[in-house]
Fold Polygalacturonase.
Amino acid sequence: QDRVSIFLVCVTSFILHKGLAATFDVTDYGAIGDGVTDDSQAFQQAWLDVCYDCENPTMNLPSEKLFLLSPIIFQGPCNSPTINIQVLGNITAPQNLTEWVGCENDSWLYFTGISGLIINGTGQINGQGATWWNISGSAHKVSGTCHKPTAMHFNFCNDLQLSGLNLVNSSRNHISITFSTRVNISNITITAPEDSPNTDGIDLSMSTTQVQILNSTFQTGDDCISINTGCSDINITGISCGPGHGISVGSLGFNETFAAVENINVTNCTLQGTQNGVRIKTWQGGMGYARFINFENINLTNVRHPIIIDQFYCNGAHNCGIEPNAVQVSNVTYKDIFGTTPSKIAINLNCSDNCTACTNLVFEQINITSVLPEKQTRAACNNAHGQANSTLPPITCL
């Protein structure tokens, strides 16, 4: 009955006001935007009206304002097929850890169950991560508060569009996307110090499919883009990455779990001064597959580990044992990858020793040289199978 009532309200509103899309300005709901006053309640009230509206509404964050927000949930589903959030002003997280209470899914700005969400604008979104970076322990938790939070988490947000945003200094991942389909991200900038821990740019996981990440810049302390289990049909192009840990598939298969990643296309990207270039990483003991992955036209400058498959990933100094199972890595193509590295090993294919060796690897037109003219680079392989054509260094170990 409630659904029918809402439908009738929307139809009536559409007939009476056809073509008129409403704008909901957060300052009309009491948001101050002075960077000191907590504007979370005003944003929450504005969101309720935006979500109830039927005619492609816009939630407006005006320019020349700095909105302080505590952890907040933007809850769907909403009545309109599309909803726009225009970020012209800046947003900042709390700097005092005691204000981090009630983080849903350990997130600062949590969007869930919203279809057709469009967020754009030139405003800065500051996660105030320095407050968290020195906290020790794997849980990254302060007593009485949430765990170390992701800045923006999108969960069950189909037909999501993000453009023009400027995210800085998240305490953990800047953007996480889970259980979402048809996602388009373009022209965003993500920045955090090179030594900031776990500050991934974009983290995709858990049944996230049909994603495009285009023409964006990442400078982080961890992966610029991380593609995790459950992801498929991911297109990444025109990315500038560095500093950071490169563009990664994984890690996959942690704690002997099943992982599935396929149909990944990474093209026309530039990586400069990163720890890794293009990387696939899996834990020993996992199951499943990472397959049909294409890396093409990648420009590397002073990248420590340009091409790496690591099926013995252990996340630092952990003493991981050898397990009988591994995630199967297959049908991976590397084409037109060129640049420089300070390391001797430019291509490192460290595949599992058991029956899940890496198979159907293809290398074409690879040219990776040392930053030192007198040094030569080389390739290293362990149980890697495939073919190589026109590569420097030569890959004779396949």
In short: Residues 84-132+149-316+324-392 form a domain with the Pectate Lyase C-like fold (CATH 2.160.20.10).
